[in-house]
Amino acid sequence: MKINDVILRTVVKGVVFIILTLGVYLFFSGHNAPGGGFIGGLVLGSGIVLLYITYDLETVHKKMPFDFKKVAAFGVLLATGSAIGSLYFDAPFLSQTDAYFNIPILGEKHLTTVTIFEAGVALTVIGTLVTIILSISEDE
Amino acid sequence: MNNLLVLPIIIPIITAVLLVFLRSHIMLQRIISLVTMLFLSLISYVLLELIQIEGILRLDFSGWLPPFGILFVADSFSLLLVLTASIVTTICLIYAFSTIGNRHEHMFFYPFVLFLIAGVNGSFLTGDIFNLFVCFEVMLLASYVLVALGGERIQLRESLKYVLINVVASWMFLVALAYLYGTLKTLNMAHIAMRVSEVGQDPMLTTVAILFLVVFSLKAGLLLFFWLPGSYSVPPTAVQALFAALLTKVGIYALIRLFTLMFPLNQEVTHTIIGVMAGLTIIAGCMGALSGRDVYTIATYNVIIGVGFILIGLAVGTETAITGAIYYLIHDMIAKALLFLLIGMMIYLTGETVVKKISGLIRNYPLFGWIFFIVMLALAGIPPLSGFVGKVLIGQGAIEEGSYVLLGIGFGSSIIVLYSLLRIFLASFFGETTISFEDRKPIPKGATMSFILLAISIVYIGVGAEAISVYVKDAARTLINPSIYIDAILKG
């Protein structure tokens, strides 16, 4: 039986944007305020899961042709890579560094290597979350 | 600061993740994982040598000094175990190449083995008790997958039990950590040890210590081993061997660390409890090994006897006994891996698990039979094989301390071990065989090679006990004098 989900689909189209924006915001604010890779990743992942629930697997997969297991693996690689990068500079494992850069148009910005680590965490969380939900739903 | 220290945990993780991308290239996966493990063995050997020159090494992550940051600490005890674990895993991988089967290899078998070894190495190396919890979880998550991988009915049933038991144990671990942090306001192991020695080990701290004892007993299979025989007999042979060699040993390591470094002051209570638990474990393990009809039951109860025996060393607690416990721990990792590999091969060759239904294996596979004989003698503690030194030293320690009951139980168990394995040897290896030499199923070359390598290690540890005694003595000295460890962390 096909249920009428016009309302859900219409609402989700708008809401997913808000969720994804909030996810990105949380990810970047994680430095000096509550947030960070894990929380940002959870919010982004839940946005993706919402898309999967509203639309069917094929439709979403057509637009986002990622294997989420590999997304998670790539995340781990990014995080461990940024951690092990400090070995090259003969600093203790996991050392991070930061600096202020003057970027045209954007002005002076605070750039850190910990963002790379956090991006790895976020990708791992997104990949794992979506993989878990997809494997549960596949089992029917 | 020495960044080498982090390699035993970070290299397997990175390699495991890379292998996820190489899912369909099985040959490449095999080569990469083998090279990784060989490299790890080499690194741990280098670190072990470095410790002999420079003393205890430590690595403060991102430069946060102890007790504020998380750190890795390498003393001879941890590194001996990391080295043994890496070697055993390498050899188990060689066995797995020819036996594990395409289905496992395709379902990320090698990445999970590497995650497992990362967790194991991390647990041995960490100097922060919360980090120990994290490394335990890394190891356990990988082991959950390895138990369930294959998806047979019995595997799913046993893995469910295994997961539940471990989740409960991990929850208790967290509760114990909370109590500990609530009382001492620190999680750094050296700092805990220092504060405990400053304020004395009052009843509150002893209670916390006993809670930790319960947690690690569940993980190590000390008395609380009811989950162990079931979940160790369902996964494929190579995984069984890894579990028997590594998982319970991490629990034993944690117990030894806990009660020599952090809570050594109230020995009448804690060490007595450990002693009683160790004695009961051995008795129960012996009963299980004697009553078992199939090879799996006998082998898994032998693991339990081994756990009890090592912890006699801790319960006695003298330097001699601890030295013996370390020797026996190393021996047990290698010998139990070999025992499980051999037993898995027996079942692969005959398709039977019941001892009486197998017969005459030695006629068709002489080398296989004699290697079983060697491991049997080693486990019983007959010189010059690897079990001997450990048993003698633990016995000597027990006599010094006057723990004659534990001594009697421990040495009595050697006879039971010998009897239970001799029963397999006489029934399954001797006697007439129904299969002619020409019709026999060949043993895969990789499997034979892994048997030979492990057998060589057993003989080497026995005959060359003198060669490794430098490291073992240093390890025991550090364990008996916690101030060496504490000073290296907090005053270095």
Question: How does this model look, in words?
Answer:
The complex is a heterodimer of chains A (140) and B (492). Chain A is mainly alpha-helical and 140 residues long. Chain A has one domain (6-138). Chain A has helices spanning 6-29, 37-54, 57-63, 68-88, 114-138; strands spanning 98-103, 107-112. Chain A has a two-stranded antiparallel ribbon with strand order 1-2. Chain B has 492 residues and is mainly α. In chain B, strands 1-2 form a two-stranded antiparallel sheet. In chain B, helix 2 (26-54) runs antiparallel to helix 3 and helix 5 packs parallel to helix 11. The chains are: A mainly alpha (140), B mainly alpha (492). Chains A and B meet through helix 4 of A and helix 1 of B. Chain B: InterPro entries: CPA3_Na-H_Antiporter_D, NADH_UbQ_OxRdtase, ND/Mrp_TM. Chain B: It is found in: Cell membrane; Membrane.
Query: Sheet bearing the most strands of chain B, described?
Result: 2 strands, antiparallel
Shape of chain B: globular
Proportion in β-strands of chain A: 5-15%
The best one-word shape of chain A is globular
Low-confidence stretches of chain B: none
**Helical percent range of chain B?**
over 70%
Distinct helical segment count of chain A: 5
Strand residue percentage of chain B? under 5%
Protein name (chain A): Na(+)/H(+) antiporter subunit B
Organism (chain A): Lysinibacillus telephonicus
Subcellular location (chain A): Cell membrane
Transmembrane segments (chain A): 7-28, 34-55, 71-91, 111-136
